Amino acid sequence: MANTMARSFLQVAATEEVASPLKFVQIEGLVILKIIKHCKEFSPALVTGQLLGLDVGSTLEVTNCFPFPTREEDEEIEADGANYQLEMMRCLREVNVDNNTVGWYQSTFLGSYQTVELIETFMNYQENIRRCVCIIYDPSRSNQGVLALKALKLSDSFMELYRSNNFTGEKLREKNLSWVGIFEEIPIKVSNSALISAFMTELEADSPVTQCDYDRLQLSTNPFMERNVEFLIECMDDLSVEQQKFQFYYRSLTRQQAQQQAWLQKRRAENMTRKAAGEEPLPEEDPSNPIFKPLPEPSRLDSYLITNQIANYCNQINGVAGQSFNRLHLMKALHDN
Hints:
The chain has helices at 2-19, 29-42, 78-94, 116-126, 139-142, 156-164, 169-175, 194-203, 211-215, 222-276, 301-336, and strands spanning 24-28, 48-56, 59-67, 101-107, 133-137, 149-154, 183-186, 188-191. The chain is an alpha/beta fold. An eight-stranded mixed sheet has the order 7-6-5-4-2-3-1-8. Strand 2 and strand 3 (59-67) form a beta hairpin. Helix 10 runs antiparallel to helix 11 (301-336). The longest helix has 55 residues, at 222-276. The protein is elongated and about 105 Å long. Residues 265-294 are annotated as: Disordered. It comes from Momordica charantia (Bitter gourd).
């Protein structure tokens, strides 16, 4: 009886754990430093790495990470990468370090991470891991005085549509999914042990002003703004191409419907003649006729991702432009004084 009650309690607890949504990603300070170091050393090349930790309730704890080796394109073999990952996790397990995979991290350039490849990687992880996140770090954005670090996951409604590979307008309206609902950003909490916090306090300089504070007054933001505008223009061109695909689809659909109506009118007139002659009427539907074959609707996934990128570039331009105006006004006031 006691075993039955304990088993029931564990089943209920497991069900509640599965149902609890992911609310926070707690990352050790050392893990963040390792991610920043790896991404900056290879910038502007893009790098990836593995996140290790624990899934505890509504919090995903990231306690360790390791980078994936960079390879030339002709030397990149998927099996070697998988063997390296397994061997690395085995070594971590032998030294009693957390070796549970909770996701991966990757670098990006000016926030250009919303791609089909990222979604496919998410889906591959979801096959083996109940909950996982992707940590995105942007070294180019961090050079502007902010820590461009974010944790992302795919929304449940989007994953359901992606598995069915059905991104038609009807399905998107049925799921009430818009372009902003593809990714979900999870709040990040930085965690440090008491010993590390005390050590960092000892290292803190007595002077309240550091070189980093002076770097924030840097007025040269033209290269960053120019690249964002260039990428924004490219995305607008890509979005225009996607819109042309839909315009061509709707023109073809209108043309097909007109052909169907003309064929039906002709068939009905023929049936009236046959009825007057006492003959059997012909069916008004002919599946073998190519004009009745449904036209495939283009997928809206690419247009949704491009719209996400456009919104990201606009937000970056808006943020940097606002900071630049503040610096210019500050420097003008200092110059006047």
